[in-house]
Model the fold of this input.
Amino acid sequence: MSRTPADGDEATVLAAGGVVVRDGQEGPEVAVVHRPRYGDWSLPKGKLERGEAWEAAARREVAEETGLECELDRELEPARYLDRKGRSKLVRFWLMRPQSGAGEFTPNDEVDELRWLPVGEAAALLDYDHDRALVAAVAPRTPRTA
Done:
């Protein structure tokens, strides 16, 4: 069910994103992005626009940051924390898979690098505990497709 944030979320900042997984030669690979503004490695995510549904925001933000159009699978554990300005932030994440012919990454001011990494390497590179936990919990259970 798609719902908008007005349904009772108390966080000041609302965001959505994804754990984007594809089948690699050695097993699942996860997309991680580098954000030059913060100098960090993160999962693709971003703030909701006014009136935007969570799922739509997750798809849009992942597409903006990775260049990929993705299918949503299941919702994952949300992250709740204080942002760099001290505001409460809620980020809802979905497991996602790139659609065939999904697009191509182009570096920009917001994200200057995208890496597809095996689960362990992705978890080691990510800067945030919640991101690492999502990758560790999701990717090993993601079945390979033929």
